[in-house]
Structure formats: C-alpha cells, structure tokens
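Comment thread on ticket #2218

A.B. wrote:
> Attaching the input chain for the structure job we discussed in standup.
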Amino acid sequence: MENKISSVLETLFKKYNISKTTLNKMRSQTEKPDAFKILISCLISLRTRDENTEKVSAKLFEVAQSPEEIISLPIKELEKLIFSSGYYKNKARTLKHVSEEVKNRFGGKVPDTREELLSMKGIGPKTANIVLAFAYGQEVIPVDVNVHRIVNRLGFLETKTAEKTEIEIHKVVPKKFWREINSVLVQFGREICLPISPWCSKCPVEKFCPKIGVSRRR
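C.D. wrote:
> Ran it. Output below, let me know if you need it in another format.
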C-alpha cells in the first residue's frame, strides 16, 4: 500500500507542481507568511469557492489587516465586505470573535499550537492545521472535503468522516508529502476527481483507483 500511495502522490505532485490555491499563494508570496491573514482567509473560505475566497480576502485586507482593525470594524461593514463569500453573518461574528481572542488572549499573535488554536470558538481541525502548515511550516496535513473524498476513493483509507481521516492519514501518507498534499489534492479534486461524475478518462492516476461506487464520466 505504501508503494501505491507514493506512486499516486508522485504522479499528482508532478502534474500540480505549482500551487494555485489562495492559502498556498499567501504562504509563498512572502518570506514570512502572515499567520493572521492566513487564519482569516481560511475562515472566509469555508463553504465557498477558492477564487471567491481570494477576492473577498483581498477586499477585506484593503480595509483591515490586523486583529485590532477587524475588531474596530462595525459588524454591518464587516458583513458587507465579506458578503459574497456566503454565510456572511456567521462568518462576520466568527472573524470578530477570533480577532478578539488573538488580541486579548494571545497578545496579538496567532498561536502556533493545535491546542491553542482549537480553544478558539469557530476554529476547527482543518483551519488549525492550515494555520500550522501554511503559516508556521509545521508537518501536519489539513484535511478538507476534497482530501477526505480522494484518499478514500483511491483506497488509501476507509474512513467515514474528515475528522477520522485527519487522524488516520498521517499514518499512511509518507511524511515528505505532508506539506503540499492539501494543495495538490484540492486542485485534483476540483479539476478531475469531482464529487459526482469524476473525469476518470482524464485522470493521471486512474490505474490506481478502485472506482468502487463511483459514477464516472469517460
């Protein structure tokens, strides 16, 4: 199984060798990534498309780039700035709360431990791991719906939830892939390995895929 996983990931890493996702761009644009911006963009990204996350984040950061600046924004103005990301009322409250937590509990610095990140309401395991991986370069795998779906579809794991996948994936994926696997599988999942009717005829790793229970496009 380890050889199969390595072969699949090596193939996908060659195809998606340039990071295109918003959060990875933020990580690579500067020598020292801005942990707060990465955290805020990740919270904005929930239940919205990546290109929308990029636009909304840029719009917000033109107005507010620090915990203090987001806290000072009237809630209605914040809602208006992030409106097109969807679920804007809940997201605005979360951005306010997280900004207050970062300022008041952590002295204005986004924490660099999983336990502290998860202690803030509104931050779940995926968001925590994205901050740890993308902002602080820690060896963790952020698991979103794409990662969860693909590793199960390819037979790497047999897990029912993304939370369980997050625990098990570190046991089967070689560590050399951890840093970039989220970006690679997100791109693969959006272009080829779609949730419904994946493009198997275009898939570079089709020969490795069991294709169990999948309605495929040829």
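A.B. wrote:
> Thanks. Noting for the ticket: The two ends are 26 Å apart (CA to CA).
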